[in-house]
Amino acid sequence: MVIKAIACALVLCLSPAAIADAERPFNVSVYGNFKRMLHTGDATGKVALASIPHSTGVYGVGALAGLTGEILIWDGRVLVSPGQSVSGSTQAPEADATATLLVTAQVKKWEQTQVPENMTQQAFEKFVVDSAHSKGIDTQKPFPFIVTGEITDYAWHVVTGATKHHGGGGQHQQGHANNRNFSGAETKGKLVGFYSAGELEGVISHPGERFHVHYADDDLKTSGHLDRFGVRKGATLLLPEQ
User: Fold this and answer.
1) C-alpha span between 181 and 52 (Å, rounded)
2) Which residue from 68, 100, 141, 198 has the least number of CB within 10 angstroms?
3) Residues whose CB is less than 8 angstroms from the CB of residue 209 and which lie 6 or more positions away in sequence, other chains included
4) Domain-by-domain residue ranges, the chain?
């Protein structure tokens, strides 16, 4: 009985996120599930933002409970872009704020790679995976990355609240979110992104996609989920050092 209790304490009683953390490089932690949210309409909070480590080297992206705004974590600083903001401006989260979807990682040191030419989104995503592989990162596992510099032909959004529709049995369910959209030809800023690999495709990214990327301006005063972009030659890709 004592042995069983110890086993429970060490393994079975850990939270799902804690168990998963030990299995993934860079302490990639996941709260919520994108595909499940779409299928069930459950956009309730899965983790309190106050419980996320606010320490140096922590980065993350996600969405607030109820799909009422976007979340960006930059080097331990947690910011939200509320859906009611007409400009996508960021602010510190409310004390009781929760995320319906969040992925975080902790990186002690970043390794820089210069973007050698102007790239479309598709070309850049391949560049990220190829660069990671060349640096010894296991591309069969999820990993974070950062981009600093100029992006082109971009579009990003902030969710403003879940739409509602009638589900089975006449029940109201939350489905896709309403968005406030932004776009432009070119801008400077920062990107915080995660490559899902096969393991987390549809969990931290849209089904059929393997990247989840958020944009922020250089001063971290505006931010949102990036839908479309290119990357200008001379931008810097940062990948976690092994």
Assistant:
1) 28
2) 198
3) 196, 201
4) 1-242
Q: Is 178 helix (H, G, I), strand (E, B) or coil?
A: strand
Calpha distance 237→155 (Å, rounded):
20
SS3 49: helix
Residue with tokens 């915080």: 192
Three-point CA angle 84, 85, 90, nearest 5°: 125
Estimate to the nearest angstrom the gap between the alpha carbon of 140 and the chain centroid. 18
Cα–chain center distance at 164: 24
β-bridge pairing 58-64 and 143-166? unpaired
Task: Indicate the pairing of strand 98-106 with strand 29-31.
Answer: antiparallel
CA 115 to chain centre: 22
Alpha carbon distance 213, 226 (integer Å): 6
Report the top-level CATH class of 1-242: alpha beta
Cβ 41 vs Cβ 175: under 8 Å? yes
Residue with tokens 């510190």: 92
Q: Nearest to residue 149, comparing CAs of 90, 60, 228, 218?
A: 218
Per-residue pLDDT of the chain (242 residues; tens, 9 = 90+): 433 333 333 333 334 454 345 578 999 999 999 999 999 999 999 999 999 999 999 999 999 999 999 999 999 999 999 999 999 999 999 999 999 999 999 999 999 999 999 999 999 999 999 999 999 999 999 999 999 999 999 999 999 998 765 444 333 334 478 999 999 999 999 999 999 999 999 999 999 999 999 999 999 999 999 999 999 999 999 999 98
